[in-house]
What we know:
By secondary structure, this protein is α+β, with helices and mostly antiparallel strands. It folds into four domains: 1-67 and 622-670 and 699-770, no CATH class; 88-239, Beta-Lactamase (2-Layer Sandwich), CATH 3.30.450.40; 261-421, GAF domain (Beta-Lactamase), CATH 3.30.450.40; 438-457 and 475-616, 3'5'-cyclic nucleotide phosphodiesterase, catalytic domain (Catalytic domain of cyclic nucleotide phosphodiesterase 4b2b). The protein is built from 26 helices and twelve strands. The chain has helices at residues 6-28, 35-40, 51-57, 81-89, 94-108, 151-158, 213-259, 263-278, 290-294, 329-336, 394-437, 442-450, 476-487, 495-507, 517-533, 540-552, 562-567, 571-575, 580-596, 604-620, 623-638, 647-662, 670-693, 710-732, 737-757, 764-771, and strands at 113-120, 125-128, 141-144, 162-164, 184-191, 197-205, 280-288, 299-304, 316-322, 340-342, 366-373, 376-386. The strands form two sheets. A six-stranded antiparallel β-sheet has the order 3-2-1-6-5-4, with helices on both faces. The chain has a six-stranded antiparallel β-sheet with strand order 9-8-7-12-11-10, sandwiched between helices. Strand 5 (184-191) and strand 6 (197-205) form a beta hairpin. The two termini are 27 Å apart. Its cofactor is a divalent metal cation. This is Phosphodiesterase. Belongs to the cyclic nucleotide phosphodiesterase family.
Amino acid sequence: xxxxxxxxxxxxxxxxxxxxxxxxxxxxxxxxxxxxxxxxxxxxxxxxxxxxxxxxxxxxxxxxxxxxxxxxxxxxxxxxxxxxxxxxxxxxxxxxxxxxxxxxxxxxxxxxxxxxxxxxxxxxxxxxxxxxxxxxxxxxxxxxxxxxxxxxxxxxxxxxxxxxxxxxxxxxxxxxxxxxxxxxxxxxxxxxxxxxxxxxxxxxxxxxxxxxxxxxxxxxxxxxxxxxxxxxxxxxxxxxxxxxxxxxxxxxxxxxxxxxxxxxxxxxxxxxxxxxxxxxxxxxxxxxxxxxxxxxxxxxxxxxxxxxxxxxxxxxxxxxxxxxxxxxxxxxxxxxxxxxxxxxxxxxxxxxxxxxxxxxxxxxxxxxxxxxxxxxxxxxxxxxxxxxxxxxxxxxxxxxxxxxxxxxxxxxxxxxxxxxxxxxxxxxxxxxxxxxxxxxxxxxxxxxxxxxxxxxxxxxxxxxxxxxxxxxxxxxxxxxxxxxxxxxxxxxxxxxxxxxxxxxxxxxxxxxxxxxxxxxxxxxxxxxxxxxxxxxxxxxxxxxxxxxxxxxxxxxxxxxxxxxxxxxxxxxxxxxxxxxxxxxxxxxxxxxxxxxxxxxxxxxxxxxxxxxxxxxxxxxxxxxxxxxxxxxxxxxxxxxxxxxxxxxxxxxxxxxxxxxxxxxxxxxxxxxxxxxxxxxxxxxxxxxxxxxxxxxxxxxxxxxxxxxxxxxxxxxxxxxxxxxxxxxxxxxxxxxxxxxxxxxxxxxxxxxxxxxxxxxxxxxxxxxxxxxxxxxxxxxxxxxx
Length: 785
Ligand SMILES: [Zn+2]
């Protein structure tokens, strides 16, 4: 351009100002953040960027989202039954303590004897406590609680003490004291603070000396205290048991989730804990088959340890038990979703009588609870026959509830595992199918192999100005093979495999206006020129990784940017937290490289390094990552402290090299660069259209209604993104200056376009007004200029 107009001066000033800003940004970012941070997570801290830069890079910058916390890995352990049993032995035997209290009362009240009856709430009976508490069942004597028949049963019913001064003549009780030949008696209920009678003490004298007031007073006082103590002890034991059960189950769960123990192990351990805890003889666990629940069936997988399972370690698993017609407590719970405490299943007409064929054990008491989610019953846990031959108590129910809540975690985990296994297998199936189809057309492949897999390049191929012409695009695979041969594909690489690889990768590019095979080719070509004109800077592995990454770097690009994928919750955006597309490109590149086994002849260590380097290189094509690298590398080369021997420094140069190659379309002669820019806009606009249809206002660059801004935007993009990149590369590789020259020429040409069009120049103030609007504003803007 020979003539400068005032308008041009404004643009130049504006650009210079932006370049200064960009430099200031670099300085500000020149801190000691590690490179790993650069790779793992991009965000140029927005407060460090001027608004113009922010606007220009907006399509490439990512929107920060809150990430999930890393799973905490801690050491775990599985169930140790010995340690667990010690606790159970340690619990207080309340009835024995009461018996001791009774004996003390007998002495101080000068009684001839004492009987202790314990109340059985469930059966509404009082049970005579034997002297030998170790074998309770054999001496059990039960008396129904009720007024007017037997003195002790009367006291249990009225919960008031009862003094009988003359047993023979007292007509209040038709059956008297039962079994005792006594003259006087004192029945003392032990009532807990909640009003429930726990036991009855019966003191008696065989002589005629009656109990005086002070004796009665003492006995009543002791009984009161005993009631309070029983209550406290029971509450403490329940709490202690619940806390202990909680700890046990939590520790188990923790270890399972850390080690991903098998479900069988989990259920076995959990059942062992709860069975031993509650003193049940048998335990069962059901997991309902969800798919069948929907269709009205109630099929379940069942784990059951059978009778006397103390000797076995693993419950037997039966698959597909049908609970729909099943006349068992578990079947009823599955159908109703209601927990059950069955006191005598044998007599209960709802259930089929169940007798163990080998031991003749009858199912009597059982505690059954459903495990539910929001859709209904997903599992069932059952405990059968309490070992003391009594039904399960209210306290048992409370403790069981704690257990059931842990079981629900297990069932959820189980269902998730099932889903996971299903999807893993589905993925394998798809992968196999995909490998089958990731192959070039046989004719095309054979044609390429007729020239030994390569196409010889045209004369201007060694120039940065070269660009593949419309008519020679079918030569791209052969030319890539040629570039591979020239840079790294020595005798360790099979020619036909390389040809197959190149054809396959290029065919995996979609037919996008910009992110297509042609772009991948252009990228690879620039990379090839820089590497071949600066030999010896990178080692063999680095060179191979760069060239392979170049061809693969946008593979399967959908034509939308990362922000859009996140916006529409694309599956890929759920898979990767940052550099969504770049991670996908690498994933596919790796798959094709492995499928085609093109690195097969290399030592394992080289193969691994190539893939590792490729991953880094491809992730560097996220412009977001580029800004970070630029901020680190610029001061290094500026201060002449760049060191080729430093791996971190080399990595940064590789990153800049990847970005330069990616942007090299802007560094072609203007005619080509303009066509490429138009292709970029075509792709951007189609994204913008989609955003608008979703109710969002697209960015100016993606808004076809604002296409008038194109030249100005290009000038901005070149000065904020492209020029600093190629200039940085030029300081490392001075012979890349043609890229910079072309870039500048292109800028000038865009300025001319503006002049020719006679359009108002892009002004910073205007664009800032737009920028301040929310990215996701749903308001439409009709006053666009
Ligand atoms: Zn690209």
